[in-house]
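FAQ: What does the model actually see?

It sees only this:
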Amino acid sequence: MSGTTIDLDPSWSIGDKIHGGYLLAEVVRAALEGGDYPHPLGVSAHFASAPDPGAADVEIELLRSGRRVEFLRAHLSQGGTHRAEVLITAGTLPDEAPRYVSADAAPPEMPSPDECGRSIAETPTGGRIGPALHLDMRLDPATTGWIRKEPTGQGVVRAWIRPGDGSPIDPYWLLIAGDAPPPVTFDLGLRGWVPTITLDAHIRALPAPGWLIAEQKAQVVGGGWLDETCTLWDETGRLVASLRQLAGYKEV
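And it is asked to produce this:
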């Protein structure tokens, strides 16, 4: 067992809550620093309570190290309050092209980034969206009727995404991008906060430089809960990551 302290940047907050993808990227980066394997392959996170900006403690336990992967557990807390539990499978992402790609793994048809609208800096209820300061995200107009108070009811959001400062995209940044698009509840006419409860990520490949294409969908929304899957492709059309979360919502 080892431990470290990370500093959660308040500029990554949505309202007064730290963005889940940014939080997860920071925890996983801390867990893999100095380890035998450079890349997260699979990540499963359970968010017990919303962390505050500022210092947070990460306890890291190496569960097993093998010839191709290692398994770790990371426990995030603040002032003795349990914030998140994260299981990580680390390894080395492949460079070669995949041997098989299913028909539904192709990226969606999208207008060019210049034809898409920039991401908004406020939620429909007026809350501040801190990640908009760090991301260059262009939303597909076909999925943003909710901005005009005309939600389509399809439960889909699509976007182009890249770091706002032009930095390269690494596997940790894919965890941020996969939680970056607006929640699909906006497209269903539900405007309230959507806290992530659990999030599972599969990182498939190192992305090519440039934009990512993100498509976020829901299968079931009801009873205050929803599932949400975000699939990420790089500019070459290669599927690089998929993230699925269970989240809550309130009728607003």
